[in-house]
Amino acid sequence: MAAATTTALAAPAARGRGEALIAITVMLGMIMAIIDATIVNVALATIAGNLGASLDDVAWVATGYILASIITMPLNGWLTAYFGRKTYYAGCIAIFTLASVLCGTATSIWQLVVYRIIQGFGGGALQPTAQAILFETFPPNRRGSAMAFFGIGVMAGPALGPIIGGYIVDNATWPLIFFINLPIGIVAFLMTIAYVPDPHYLQKPKTGLDVFGLMLLSAGLGALQYVLERGEHDDWWSSDTILALTAVAAITLPWFLIRMLRSAHPLVDMRAFRFRGFWVGNVLLCVVGFGLFGTSLIMPLFFQTIMGMTAYGTGLALLPGALATAVAMPIVPRLMRIIDVRILITAGALLFAWSCWALGGLNEVAGYWDVFWPRLVQGAGLGLLFVPVTTVMLSDVPNRELASATGVSMLVRQLGASLGIAILTTLLARETAVAWSALASGVQHSYGQSVGTLMQLVALNSTVIAYDYLFRISALVFVASIPLIWMLKRFNPATGTTGGAGASPALAD
Predict the structure, then answer these.
(1) Are 222 and 67 spatial neighbours (Cβ–Cβ below 8 Å)?
(2) 15 located within any domain
(3) How far is CA 276 from CA 17, 168, 498, 499, in A?
(4) Which of 200, 232, 247 is the C-terminal boundary of a domain?
């Protein structure tokens, strides 16, 4: 009896250590990819100067990575089944790490772009695979904690990237932003081989690679992402390239979806959309992507162009939000046991909306503390949003479909982010022009200052007005999403499913 008791007590402890090791392993790879994606953005101007490239050319360092990663994301399920989870995740870490080293050795801008595309093929799989591994590893009643762990990396990475990148750019050379991935990648690779298991239910695809389907997917997603990334720069519909690629996306993506729905063994499995929680959660993730990445774009621009902050100072101004998210996320799974998740998500949306509205009141004389409190509230709001949404979204999806489901949901969030950035950058240019026109019309009636000085003030105030408009538009987007939150079913934290106690994934919808 003593031996049996000891074994019974040791089992949960051993299981807990195993969960912790797997969580640390997948987080290393995922955070490496997330931070790298944001760390590069603050170094683009420096890279352009060092490699003798124009700002238009150096933008492909970021665009090429994104184009490659979004093509990989929806293939996550098929590639995981074909190679096995351990081999696939370890292989993606190896590709990402080796490409990082190549990026640091690049001597021309287009060489760097090619290496970043290779890096994107590896990095695009790390987030969805990490999410699937964490969701499977933790038992149903602790999956909220797993998504909190996952969310810390997803939300903190974009905030830490500018700080690290700004410090490196100011105090070292730009190749270091890529070389720092080498030790992290080696450790993550070795830990993946040692600790990440291959699920017993994974089976190799019963058919070969759907080459035509892959071509449709690559052409459609590549064209759509290019349009979202470069539309404002190319003046949207006045560009023949934008028009042509819009047509390509409009033809190939519906064709691909029809092909997948008719296939008995699809390249991208979208059966998870039969669950209400999954499709509603994905729409909400679009909103989160819009808010997180859209405001993550306009906040640094506002801080640097209007408030005169350095790249490193901008990173410090963004840090309170990341810290608040990191503090909130471990608490949220406990709140999910006593409070309806729909209330938590609604509270998160309202907090984020309030923070954006408060940021919409900033001007050129604002200081650090004017930014601190809205960022703090924003970080807490993201914690309340992200953990419940991702937990409920995947709660009814069977384990064998998780790899595909996480890949598709990550793609949806990325497209939501790209759509948000495209909309906000377009509105920024348009609202700046409108404000400038309105303010400049009164310059001729002003006295006591030169026209040149007044025009500089007009340009500055026009930009401030446009940024404030964008912040408040972002606030309204989050408020508008609240009715959708209440379409989610009630979540049962004890069973880890929706639809009441004892609900099973097969019968939840």
Answers:
(1) yes
(2) yes
(3) 34, 45, 10, 11
(4) 200
Which single residue is written with the structure tokens 């640097």? Answer: 304
Q: Is residue 228 part of a domain?
A: no
Query: What sign results for the dihedral spanned by CA atoms 124, 288, 380, 403?
Result: negative
449: left (phi > 0), else alpha (psi -120 to 50), else beta?
beta
Full pLDDT tens readout for the chain, 509 residues: 444 444 443 445 455 567 778 888 888 888 788 777 777 777 777 788 888 877 677 778 877 888 888 888 888 888 888 888 888 889 999 999 999 999 989 888 889 999 999 998 888 888 888 888 887 777 777 777 777 777 777 766 666 777 777 777 777 788 888 888 889 899 999 999 988 887 777 777 777 778 888 888 888 888 888 888 778 777 788 888 889 999 999 999 899 888 888 887 788 888 888 888 888 888 888 877 777 667 777 777 777 778 877 767 777 777 788 788 888 888 888 888 888 889 999 999 999 899 989 988 888 777 778 888 988 898 888 888 888 888 888 888 887 787 788 888 878 877 777 777 778 878 888 888 888 887 776 665 555 556 667 677 777 788 888 888 888 888 888 898 899 888 888 887 777 677 644 344 433 33
Instruction: Please tell me whether residues 306 and 414 are part of one structural domain.
Output: yes
Residues 6+ apart with CB under 8 A from 1: none
Spatial neighbors of 182 by CB under 8 A, at least 6 apart, are 97, 100, 101
Q: Which of 332, 354, 356, 358 is nearest to 345 (CA)?
A: 332
- For residues 483 and 334, membership in a common domain is answered with yes
Count of CB atoms situated within 10 Å of the CB of 316: 17
On whether residue 254 sits in a domain, the answer given is no
Q: What is the CATH number of the domain that holds 457?
A: 1.20.1250.20
Whether residue 138 contacts residue 496, with contact meaning beta carbons closer than 8 Å, is answered with no
What is the spatial distance between Cα 214 and Cα 265, in angstroms, rounded to a whole number?
14
Q: Say how many domains are in the chain.
A: 2
Residue 497 β-bridge partners: 492
Q: What string of DSSP letters covers 407-448? A: HHHHHHHHHHHHHHHHHHHHHHHHHHHHHHHHHHTTGGG--S
- Give residue 99's domain range: 10-200
SS3 367: coil
Residue 1: inside a domain: no
pTM above 0.90, yes or no: no
State both tokens at 268: 């991208």
Which of 336, 283, 344 lies closest to 484 in space, CA to CA? 283
Compute the distance between CA of residue 25 and CA of residue 439 in angstroms, rounded to an integer: 55
Q: Where are the alpha helices (DSSP H) in 138-210?
A: 143-171, 176-179, 181-195
316 & 178 share domain? no
